[in-house]
Design goal:
Elements (H helix, E strand, L loop, with lengths): L1 H16 L6 H22 L9 H14 L7 H24 L8 H10 L3 H28 L10 H28 L18 H21 L6 H25 L3 H7 L16
Length: 282
Amino acid sequence: MALAYALAICVAAVVINFTQEYSLLWRALAADVGATLVIFAFGTVFRNSSFYDPYWSVTPPILLLYWCGELVLSDPRIAFLFLITLFWSLRLTHNWMRSWSGLDHEDWRYRNFKESTGGFYPLVDLFGIQLAPTLMVFLGCLPFYWLSSSTQTNWQFIDYLWVLIGFSGVYLEMRADNVLRDFKLTNTQPGKVLDYDVWGLCRHPNYLGELSFWFVIGSAGFLGTKDPLVWIGFVVMLALFVFYSVPALDKKLMESKTDYEEYKKSVWSLIPIKKRRADGGL
């Protein structure tokens, strides 16, 4: 895995070097795609698409530094974005490292795709599992690029709000993952649902924290540029989680957890508020 990502970074650097006639935006996109193809090649050789899993958390801080590296120490908006992005990246990468057991482990969604698509899986793997998320993350990071050339750098009081949401969202993800990890290690009841701590607030607190992170990037970008296009990435991420990630995981858990249907009836997927029942109770 380390070799795959070291080579991917090298390929990205070569692409950057040979595309100097283009803007920083297109050079970064070309390098991003080139690095993804390297990871895809490793996943194909070792027959494990989970080679791509860390890519999601590694790319944003690299893009931020590539586009805004000179501003990290001089622009407070970029500085806080960097700190939040670094916190998010280290937390997500660490969580992957402690949960990935090696080449014997592959994400359950990828295995489902293999079973359902058969001989077409290599195409699904390349375009659906790897290139599509790469482009989604790239879109989510575009506010970094627009902020790098923005002249509206005045810090506003409302900026403190997205900073608070950013750190809180990453902490929510971290707490959700830690509680889930402890539950998996200590639970002795097959089919038991994790419904306490932050998992009692909503069914997918880790997804809520993840969406908070991308919302923060869009918020900082909008305050710094006043361009509504900065929200494209967040809207794409929101659609991904609402229309695919949440329904797919709910379906899987409904099949394996006997009490999940009752849990689903009483707790929203991404809204941290208890549902009201028809009798008016909670």
